[in-house]
Specification:
single chain; mainly beta; five-stranded antiparallel sheet; 1 helix; globular
């Protein structure tokens, strides 16, 4: 597969406030044996983890050596998997036996990347996706509350359409807009939350659910490493199929908005920001993965 580099410049009006522009977009060397999806950075930014369009498996790719390594082929393991803060472990939920919510069997597991040791941390017919707390994977709310305080806030996920957080060892349910939510994500300093309300679009609020600021459409939001921008996708569909999508940058107050893939020839989806530098990963509907480099200007 050839490497494609797209270089773009966004015309920015001179201003005292920060703005953002794309420097380059590079297609990564990945075999066409899978339709790749949902890439995320390791904590160092030197590696990425990704799954396929069916979520059946997790792979690790080195941006330095260009080597792709299969981590697991477990069924549905690629849905909402997570990486520990030190980058040494991943945690995911897998389907052991298919069925409805009464007959299926699921397991949440923690996998040590250096030893390939797998530890089962929960098992049942309807269990939550695991999260890392104090570098250990957890799923059960009671266990989380018992063992994790005090600790930085952690997003637990969606609990019956509401946002679930773990704050100082206590599970909190947020409903800032009296709605139904998806894609909650914490700012780098863990003081703010970005999420999408299903009918009203993206918003930012404090982690106690106050100070709500609606920021328009910004699906699958991801914070930049410095917390200055929220990166998301502006996808369009006909009710059945996505026919267009761009990666956008929105300021947390919603006042500024930029299209980072305006000149990109493809359907750009599911962005993920590096926690270490000014880079963004995204995948396309065709199963390709791209690395976008950006800069902030004044």
């Amino acid at each position: 597969m050839k490497v494609k580099v797209f270089t773009m410049t966004l015309l920015c009006v001179a201003s005292l406030t920060s703005q953002i522009k794309t420097v380059s977009i590079e297609e990564l060397h990945l075999p066409p044996t899978e339709r790749w999806s949902h890439p995320i950075f390791s904590p160092t930014g030197k590696e990425i983890f990704l799954t396929n369009s069916d979520y059946n498996g997790i792979w690790q790719y080195s941006l330095e050596t260009k080597v792709l390594k299969e981590i697991t082929r477990d069924m549905h393991s690629g849905f909402a998997f997570t990486v520990s803060d030190d980058g040494r472990k991943i945690a995911y939920r897998r389907t052991v036996q298919q069925g409805d919510h009464r007959t299926r069997v699921q397991e949440s597991v923690e996998l040590d990347l250096s030893t390939a040791t797998v530890s089962i941390i929960d098992r049942g017919n309807s269990i939550a996706t695991p999260v890392f707390v104090n570098r250990r994977a957890k799923t059960n709310a009671k266990t989380l509350q018992k063992q994790s305080a005090p600790h930085l806030p952690v997003v637990l996920g969606i609990d019956e359409t509401k946002i679930a957080l773990l704050i100082n060892g206590e599970k909190k349910i947020l409903d800032p807009l009296n709605g139904q939510y998806i894609w909650p994500t914490l700012s780098p300093d863990r003081t703010k939350l970005a999420a999408v309300e299903m009918d009203r679009g993206a918003f930012v609020c404090s982690i106690d659910g106050t100070n709500v600021q609606r920021i328009g459409k910004c699906n699958a939001p991801s914070w930049t490493y410095n917390g200055q921008w929220i990166i998301g996708m502006d996808d369009k569909d006909d009710g059945h199929t996505i026919y267009d999508s761009d990666i956008i940058a929105v300021s947390p107050d919603g006042s500024k908005r930029y299209n980072l893939t305006e000149s990109f020839n493809g359907i750009a989806m599911y962005p993920s920001c590096s926690v270490a530098e000014a880079k963004i990963l995204f995948s396309t509907l065709d199963g390709e993965v791209f690395l976008l480099s950006y800069e902030e200007v004044r």
